From TrEMBL, chain A:
It is found in: Nucleus speckle; Nucleus, Nucleoplasm. This is Sodium channel modifier 1. Pfam families: SCNM1_acidic, zf-SCNM1. GO terms for cellular component: nuclear speck; spliceosomal complex. Residues 43-69 form the Sodium channel modifier 1 zinc-finger domain. GO terms for molecular function: zinc ion binding. It comes from Dillenia turbinata.
Automatic annotation (TrEMBL), chain B:
This is DNA damage-binding protein 1. One of its GO terms (molecular function) is nucleic acid binding. It comes from Dillenia turbinata. Residues 862-1181 form the RSE1/DDB1/CPSF1 C-terminal domain. The lineage of its organism: Eukaryota, Viridiplantae, Streptophyta, Embryophyta, Tracheophyta. Residues 835-846 have a biased composition (Acidic residues). It comes from the Eukaryota.
Length: 217, 1215
């Protein structure tokens, strides 16, 4: 407290201010904001994460219409996620393992009267089949090989589950292709605007290196 | 993260050494400063150096001096340190401690250029001490006695001169005239002012005499005269009736005698014949030997040659100065000539030596003299000599030194060992070595002999209680007993009286002079006159266990019956009492008979119901249970260990007598508890896991004290060293049964059985944590890598200014031919492999002793070696050609290429550091392993535009730090192919660590940079760096976000990327953030946080995360330049952190460091210490006086015993 020195009123004032801050903050839900290292606050609910100089301003913001709208939206999304989760849990709880079952066995066991579940499952697997390659592609695109952050790990597990349901041909093809492309970029090849490959001038190549223009065709 | 710092191996290098009689009387001791540790050494009767006392002072010792007050019998120690204080110590023989007599503050702490502490000089008559700084300040303290003969010290007198650099100071011996101090000084005031540089080139060194006027209490500059600009050292010449007084000025190529009012007497230092002309000869250390009638000096040059310097004088007039070649030993930091005829050489690098004088160089040898000094137009005419084998000295002992540790790795490469070994690269030039450190005591095996069967037990027994040596070794087999008598040879005897057709359970001396053999069916008592009394077991019962001492025997019969016997006054064994235990007895032991008593009071009985009972043996309550202790599993073996009362002295601390009961449990745990000597109550339990087998306990004698051998899956020794009870493993194989052994060849040995062999061995170098195996190397080792699969090491070595092996060999041949020595038929090829410095006595010129012949500074020699540590054999050695030197090495697996693991070595050609750092080219060599990794073949080498100081394998490619550029290479057909680079590093990259797709780059001057490789863009990004500019010397990867580093000022620190930043980096799907985010002032956009900071006080050269005990938690092990090894252990509980931080706090207050440096300030010397508790300070707790221990313990709400237990526990977690 050297700014105020000695036993001036300054220190007391500082304490009082801090106490007031604490009281204001007490009333707020701690997951809705974050205290930054510079002492300012940011709202975590609003999409733009506005920054506030003091807790007072944060508390005012929390009463504002925009914040309330954002909070409501967030809540809505949470509920929808929850619903989705329940749905999946219901699916996975069926006595025959979700992943273990093959399409043929599914057909064989059609006689088992669970038409609704069957129907939903079919719909879901169709949707997922369409999505899967794209998702995997995204995954590789944003994470270089070897990174297994929580997100990518989950999707890949999920993807293998799907892969057993649908004929895996298309997806594998895509992944393989993607992997080969990456190998060429890592080796120093670049692409021009037309999608043709050319050598980066700062990179050295061996005389017998493969040419992606040829082998990726 | 909280860490506990503990030094495992104290520094082994020596900064300076002095000798004198510190304990008073005739004894001769050596005090050595090892950076932050002060040691007192003494050569024992066998000519081995013993460490009497070792104290960590938590400061840097810069200079040492000893002085003696007139008429006194004892020397005092003066210490110049970084504390800004002068400290005078006295060695207290009774308590075995250094007592601080005086501590006077004169300046700021830290090693500063104008704060005194760097130089110390003593008036030879012990009347004054001068303490000097590198620049300007010199202070003189007057030393005197008060009325009760205590040492007094005056307030300081100033002898400052500003703008003056000091090179050396010394006291001038002028009898009882006013004390005079001499100094070599350089006045730079003019050179500083003159911007043209002319004054600087004309600057001249002066020799200045300062006189302390004892009457006026004032210091004045008395005399000043020019000396050679190459002058670097002063040596006092005896005066005051013993000699001519004055000083010897050691300068480049010359030694000059100077005194006030006396003309200079100058002689040239003889040169080695093979020395290049541009190299000078400097004296680096000196020692004076003075007797009543004569004196001489031993001066050592920077090449290791020692010269004997004598003065011809006629009263005060010196007529001639002679320099005669004496001998050559490795270059020393200090030489100490002891009055007992020893020379202690504290080596600059490599092992220290203790030499004995065979002669004092009276025989004719190469000699230069002031009388024959010739001056021609080219200058003075040099005198040449050839070094030869030792003639005047003979080495009788050496003290191992790891200084400097260049690189270190911890791994277990030996199949038959359960703990990992520490592989260290040590030393420099010809004294380089690979040393394998193993936790445990070294043993030396005296004999191994095969026995006719598999023995089950062994005992040694004396014939009479007064005998010094054992008479018989008795070995028991499954159905027989073998008796061997110990004499000149060990042979089987049949007339001993022992029953040999039955196995034995115990054999011992009983009473004064009779022997006892306990076998399953009874007790056989063999009287001295040959009469035999036999006691038989009742009914069909057999004896299962026995406990005995010299006067008491307890046997346990099957079924759990105890029978107690005593030896009565007539020497008969009498049954005294019987007692029925509830179940079978697992083990028994009786405490040894206390001095002057009839019997021991306690019997310990271990049962299979997991209990240990203490029974009384007193006649009034015989075999009554005094105490019961339950243990975690059934005890297998019991041993009482009595610690005799001690009030300090040679090798102990102040502690009362106490009795410990040790139990080896079936789970492999050693359980130790204190037995109350009066009531028999048990308290203060400690347990320690020793190995997979239940420990068997045996008593042994170590340095005249009772010690304990514990045989588990490896043997351990529990003994008392400098007041501490230490339980240390022995570096030996698994043993079955052991007994102490004493004969005239081996006073304190152990005889043991293992398999079908009988082994006799002794235990060496007590008190040391590690024992080492040394494998010599050829040049200064730089780095090494492991091939864990093949268990081989690849070492790179390089040296500047030396000739390569062939050139040296041919020069050597030439020399031998010239000298006419009929050697060198062997060609020394094998020895060359290992650096040519094994203990080969017939080699007249070993490189280890004489050093390599010197070449021009721009000449480099270097080699790559593949070494099999199990056989200590070099399987491949490639010497680099064309002045190339290797600086970095790594193994790399290139993806989808045919060769498998390859070796990459970074080299530089014609590297020069002076006048400017320059080189012709840098290369990366790629080698292929052949013959199962045992040899190397060059695949290709790639020229690069810098010196590759760091190499690392990364995602099937090679990352190289070339100057300030980080580059990624792929393997091509003819060379490496550059694939990607980042040039944004500030200085020079010296370390690269990788984990997943992150790269942690260490810059020589600016700490760590965290990078990421983006495969889809083929780019390397720096996304975080450190905000402190650290001069990195060592680095180690801790976890995904954390790195440990050490800087050249002796700090160890951990940096961690904040969790949110780390997450952000990893979850950056577009990659835009990492790409476009800008830092400020050319830094990276994110900063790592420092989470741990600690000043070790010694330059850390290697860091590694490892565990030294099998299955133990990991800690960070570090090795330092001074040759010490330490560890940082992460705390696992908050309670421990609280406890140790409080203990540390109290220790700081109650036990301030010896040399006056504040502990907290020392550990925070460069940056405030953060989250590290200094275990070295905490471990000084047992050395405190008992009342102080109690005081601290009270503050912590514990007992001193509990604190010591805690200290022991945490140490056991590390090693």
């Amino acid at each position: 407290m050297s700014v105020f020195g000695g036993d001036s009123w300054g220190r007391e004032a500082q304490y009082r201010k801090r106490r007031v801050d604490d009281l204001i903050i007490d009333g707020l839900d701690s997951s809705s904001y974050k205290k930054l290292s510079n002492g300012k606050f940011t709202c975590l609910l609003c999409p733009k994460n506005p920054i506030f100089d003091s807790s007072l301003m944060l508390s005012m913001h929390n009463k504002g219409a925009r914040h309330l709208a954002a909070a409501a939206k967030l809540k809505e999304r949470e509920i929808s996620i929850e619903n989705e989760a329940k749905k999946r849990i219901a699916l996975s709880n069926c006595p025959v393992g979700y992943a273990a079952i093959s399409i043929t066995s599914m057909q064989a066991s059609k006689s088992v009267s669970r038409p609704l579940i069957q129907q939903t499952r079919k719909a879901v697997s169709e949707v997922l089949c369409k999505q899967a390659p794209q998702q995997i592609g995204d995954n590789i695109g944003c994470h270089s090989l070897g990174v297994t952050s929580g997100f990518s790990c989950n999707t890949s597990v999920f993807a293998t589950k799907v892969a057993e349901i649908v004929p895996p041909l298309r997806k594998l093809d895509f992944q393989e292709r993607r992997e080969r492309e990456l190998k060429f970029t890592a080796a120093g090849w670049k692409r021009d605007c037309t999608g043709k490959w050319f050598k980066d001038e700062n990179v050295e190549f061996d005389s017998d290196d493969e040419d992606p223009n040829v082998c990726l065709r | 993260m909280y860490l506990y710092n503990l030094t495992l191996q104290k520094p082994t290098g020596i900064v300076c050494a002095i000798n004198g009689s510190f304990s008073g009387g005739k004894s001769q001791e050596i005090v050595v400063a090892r950076g932050k540790v002060l040691d007192l050494l003494r050569p024992d009767d066998n000519g081995r150096i013993q460490t009497i006392l070792s104290v960590e002072i938590f400061g840097a010792i810069r200079s040492l001096a000893q002085f003696r007050l007139t008429g006194s019998q004892k020397d005092y120690i003066v210490i110049g340190s970084d504390s800004g204080r002068i400290v005078i110590l006295e060695y207290n023989k009774e308590k075995n401690v250094f007592d601080k007599i005086h501590q006077e503050t004169f300046g700021k702490s830290g090693c500063r250029r104008i704060v005194p502490g760097q130089y110390l000089a003593i008036d030879p008559k012990g009347r004054a001490v001068m303490i000097g700084a590198c620049e300007k300040q010199k202070l003189v303290y007057v030393l005197n006695r008060d009325t009760v003969a205590r040492l007094t010290i005056s307030s300081p007198l100033e002898a400052h001169k500003s703008h003056t650099i000091v090179y050396s100071i010394t006291g001038v011996d002028c009898g009882f005239d006013n004390p005079i101090f001499a100094a070599i000084e350089l006045d730079y005031s003019e050179a500083d002012q003159d911007s043209t540089g002319q004054a600087a080139s004309e600057a001249q060194k002066h020799l200045t005499f300062y006189e302390l006027d004892l009457g006026l209490n004032h210091v004045s500059r008395k005399w000043s005269e020019q000396v050679d600009n190459g002058a670097n050292m002063l040596v006092t010449v005896p005066g005051g009736g013993d000699g001519p007084s004055g000083v010897l000025v050691c300068a480049e190529n010359f030694v000059i005698y100077k005194n006030q009012g006396h003309p200079d007497v100058r002689a040239v230092i003889p040169r080695r014949a093979d020395l290049p002309a541009e190299r000078g000869v400097l004296i680096v250390s000196a020692a004076t030997h003075k007797q009543k009638s004569m004196f001489f000096f031993l001066l050592q040059t920077e090449y290791g040659d020692i010269f004997k310097v004598t003065l011809e004088h006629d009263n005060e007039r010196v007529t001639e100065l002679k320099i005669k070649y004496f001998d050559t030993i490795p270059v020393t930091a200090s030489l100490c000539v002891l009055k007992t005829g020893f020379l202690f050489a504290a080596s600059e690098f490599g092992n220290h030596g203790l030499y004995q004088f065979q002669a004092i160089g009276d025989e004719a040898d190469v000699e230069s003299s002031s009388a024959t000094l010739m001056e021609t137009e080219e200058g003075f005419q040099p005198v040449f000599f050839q070094p030869r084998g030792l003639k005047n000295l003979v080495r009788i002992d050496q003290v191992e030194s790891l200084m400097p540790i260049m690189d270190m790795k911890v791994i277990n490469l030996f199949d038959n060992e359960e703990t990992p070994q520490i592989f260290t690269l040590c030393g420099r030039g010809p004294q380089s070595s690979l040393r394998i450190l193993r936790p445990g005591l070294a043993i030396s095996e005296m004999a191994v002999s095969q026995l006719p069967g598999i023995p089950s037990a062994v005992w040694t027994v004396k014939k009479n209680v007064t005998d010094e040596f054992d008479a018989y070794i008795v070995v028991s087999f499954a159905n027989a007993t073998l008796v061997l008598s110990i004499g000149e040879t060990v042979e089987e005897v049949s007339d001993s009286g022992f029953l040999d057709t039955t196995p034995s359970l115990a054999v011992s001396l009983l009473g004064e002079d009779s022997l006892m053999q306990v076998h399953p069916n009874g007790i056989r008592h063999i009287r001295e006159d040959g009469r035999i009394n036999e006691w038989r077991t009742p009914g069909k019962k057999t004896i299962v266990k026995v406990g005995y001492n010299r006067l008491q025997v307890v046997i346990a019969l099957s079924g759990g019956e105890l029978i107690y016997f005593e030896v009565d006054v007539s020497g008969q064994l009498m049954e005294v009492e019987k007692h029925e235990m509830s179940g079978d007895v697992a083990c028994l032991d009786i405490a040894p008979v206390p001095e002057g008593r009839q019997r021991s009071r306690f019997l310990a009985v271990g049962s299979y119901d997991n209990t240990i009972r203490i029974l009384s043996l007193d006649p009034d309550d015989c075999l009554q249970i005094l105490a019961v202790q339950s243990v975690s599993s059934a005890p297998e073996s019991l041993l009482f260990l009595e610690v005799q009362a001690s009030v300090g002295g040679e090798d102990g601390a102040d502690h009362p007598a106490s009795l410990f009961l040790n139990a080896g449990l079936q789970t492999g745990v050693l359980f130790r508890t204190v037995v109350d000597m009066v009531t028999g109550q048990l308290s203060d339990n400690r347990s320690r896991f020793l190995g997979l087998r239940a420990p068997k306990l045996f008593s042994a004698i170590v340095r005249g004290r009772r010690a304990m051998l514990c045989l588990s899956s490896r043997p351990w020794l529990g003994y008392i060293h400098q007041g501490h009870f230490l339980l240390t493993p022995l570096s030996y194989e698994t043993l079955e049964y052991a007994a102490s052994f004493s004969s005239d060849q081996c006073a304190e040995g152990v005889v043991a059985v293992a398999g079908d062999a009988l082994r006799v061995f002794t235990i060496e170098r007590l008190g040391e944590t590690f024992n080492e195996t040394m494998i010599p190397l050829r040049y200064t080792p730089r780095k090494f890598v492991l091939q864990p699969k093949r268990k081989l090491l690849v070492i790179i070595e390089s040296d500047q200014g030396a000739f390569n092996a062939e050139e040296r060999e041919s020069a050597r041949k030439e020399f031998f031919e010239a000298a006419g020595i009929g050697n060198s038929e062997n060609g020394n090829v094998d020895k060359m492999e290992n650096g040519g410095d094994d203990e080969d006595k017939d080699d007249p010129l070993s490189d280890e002793q004489y050093g390599y012949p010197k070449a021009e500074a721009e000449k480099w020699v270097s080699c790559i070696r593949v070494l099999d540590p199990r056989e200590a054999r070099t399987t491949c050695l490639l010497e680099l050609q064309d002045n190339e030197a290797a600086f970095s090495v790594c193994t790399v697996n290139f993806h989808d290429k045919e060769y498998g693991t390859l070796l990459a070595v970074g080299t530089a050609k014609s590297l020069q550091f002076w006048p400017k750092r320059s080189f012709t080219a840098g290369y990366i060599h790629i080698y292929r392993f052949l013959e199962d990794g045992k040899s190397l073949e060059l695949l290709h080498k790639t020229e690069v535009d810098g010196v590759p100081l760091a190499l690392c394998s990364f995602q099937g490619r090679l990352l190289a730090g070339i100057g300030s550029v980080l580059r990624l290479y792929d393997l091509g057909k003819r060379k490496l192919l550059r694939k990607c680079e980042n040039k944004l590093f500030p200085n020079i990259i010296i370390s690269i660590n990788t984990y997943r797709d992150r790269i942690y780059v260490g810059d020589i001057q600016e700490s760590f940079h965290y990078c990421k490789y983006r495969r889809d863009e083929n780019q390397l990004y720096i996304f975080a760096d450190d905000s402190y500019p650290r001069w990195l010397t060592a680095s180690n990867h801790i976890d995904f976000d954390t790195m440990a580093g050490a800087d050249k000022f002796g700090n160890v620190y951990f940096v961690r990327l904040p969790q949110d930043v780390s997450d952000e980096i990893e979850e950056d799907p577009t990659g835009g953030k990492i790409k476009w985010e800008q830092g400020k002032l050319n830094g990276a956009p994110n900063k790592v946080e420092e989470i741990v900071q600690f000043h070790v006080g010694d330059v850390v050269t290697s860091l590694q995360k490892a565990s030294l005990i099998p299955g133990g938690g990991e800690c960070i092990i570090y090795g330092t330049v001074m040759g010490s090894v330490g560890a940082f252990l992460p705390f696992t509980s908050r309670d421990d952190v609280d406890f140790f931080s409080h203990l540390e706090m109290h220790m700081r207050q109650e036990h301030p460091p010896l040399c006056g440096r504040d502990h907290m300030a020392y550990r925070s010397a460069y940056f405030p210490v953060k989250d590290v508790i200094d275990g070295d300070l905490c471990e000084q707790f047992p050395t405190l006086p008992a009342d102080l221990q109690r005081k601290i313990a009270d503050e912590l709400d514990r007992t001193p015993g509990e604190i010591m237990k805690k200290l022991e526990e945490i140490r056991n977690k590390i090693i």
